[in-house]
Amino acid sequence: MQWVTWENVGVDRIGCAWLILREIDPKAKFVFIPRGAAWAADAQPFDIPGVRFSHHGGHCSFHALVHEHKLSDPTLHRIARIIDEADTVQPVNIERVAPGLDLLCEGLRRISPDDATALERGRLLYDALYSMLAEKGSAS
């Protein structure tokens, strides 16, 4: 399936792409469009305001993907909480790694020649985050 999102990926869109490839659609192809541009009718949009897989109720698009696909892995829920804190305004912040993850994703975008490369490089970052959280137990 073709997945579409806005250009200039950040912490949420990099995480979403990682999640889509890992848990939802291993053969996913990603297309990046300018803000406000239309997308193909057969493409699945994410992290674009007003679509199913976007910000809702103070949660990030990653959270929407986890919730809508009924993913029960507690480590994925923890990553959703981290991205919520990194990408949205939260009343209370408890995830110490959230600002660091946001900073690293911003850096990946800056050193990458395009969004596809940033997503590919971000996969390694999210694989490492998942591994550490799974090993340490995701409830903490």
How would you explain this protein's 3D organization?
The chain is mainly alpha-helical. It has helices spanning 11-24, 61-68, 74-87, 98-111, 115-136; strands at residues 2-6, 29-33, 44-45. The protein has a 3-stranded parallel β-sheet with strand order 2-1-3, with no helix packed on it. α1 links the parallel β1 (2-6) and β2 (29-33). α1 (11-24) packs across α5 (115-136) and α4 runs antiparallel to α5. The longest helix has 22 residues, at 115-136.
Compact summary:
51% of the residues lie in helices and 9% in strands. The protein has 140 residues and is mainly alpha-helical.
Give the H and E element order: EHEEHHHH
Number of helices: 5
Determine the mean pLDDT: 94
What percent strand?
A: 5-15%
Tell me, briefly, the overall form: globular
